Amino acid sequence: MDRTQSYLLVAGVTIAGIVATVVSAAAASGSVTITKSRGEVCMVSNGLPDHSTGKFPNSGNPHRIKAQHIEVCVPENPVKTSHATQLRGTTGFALNGVLLRPGTADYYDPSSPRGFSRDRSSGWKLDGKGAGSMLGLDRNNAHVDRRGLYHYHASPTGLLERSKSSLVGFAADGFEIHYVGSRARSGYTLKPGTRKSGPGGKHDGTYVQDWQYTGGSGKLDKCNGGSLNGKFVYFITDSYPYLPHCAWGKVSGDFGRP
């Protein structure tokens, strides 16, 4: 099956175009059910992936993976608006039931033994992928939060290796999220020169403030959105912002809350 097709085939059923379709996946200890009904796409999972993970706790992440109860719904037929909503925390979910959480709550803090903390005063926010070694990300660009929630900060390597489609999941506003490799080109570039404050040093992508949106022909929009097979979708990219950080549609009320 071609990776650019805009549907996923799991257990013999197609996720797109079927009302009240149920898709279940279980491998290792992961469990997820995705349903389409009454104008919504809903996902229930235990938050555990269907692939192997890194070792947790580790030197950059002191938490252990724990099963969760996750239940979220997004619009089945989202409408793109002219205003982008900045997302915090969870920005979408993958088809294996793992949440997409590209951002962090950590900032440069020279007074902290780790060099960062939840103190926002420096204004230099760690990027999940850029500071991956500091935050203990595994090869799937994922780690664990204080609750034991395993979540992706960037391209979900283990999931992509098993996938037969470009469809990876759904964003908080209901638009699909796809991965098509280098054919989806981010519109963000590193700022030139060195940082004038905070941690100093070269703009190397460790911090969100190292990046700027410059756009350009053939580049994705600021939310990593673009066209696939004639419809608007978001893309996972191999460079910043990796996952969508904002949404062009109406964000589901299931997001932006604990």
Detailed description of the structure:
This protein has 258 residues and is mainly beta. The chain is 4% helix and 28% strand. It contains two helices and 20 strands. It has helices at residues 132-135, 157-162, and strands spanning 9-10, 13-14, 22-27, 30-37, 40-45, 70-75, 85-86, 92-94, 99-100, 107-108, 116-117, 142-144, 150-152, 167-171, 176-178, 188-190, 211-213, 225-228, 231-235, 246-247. The strands form six sheets. Strands 12-13-9-8-14-15-19-18 form an eight-stranded mixed beta sheet, with no helix packed on it. A four-stranded antiparallel beta sheet has the order 3-4-5-6, with no helix packed on it. A hairpin with a 2-residue loop joins strand 1 (9-10) and strand 2.
Distance between the termini: 37 Å
Q: How much of the sequence is in beta strands?
A: 25-35%
- Label the structural class: mainly beta
What letter string, H or E per element, gives the SSE order? EEEEEEEEEEEHEEHEEEEEEE
Count the E strands. Answer: 20
Separate helix tally: 2
Main sheet characteristics: 8 strands, mixed
Poorly predicted sequence stretches spanning 5 or more consecutive residues? 1-27
What fraction, in percent, of the residue positions are helical? under 10%
Mean pLDDT metric = 90
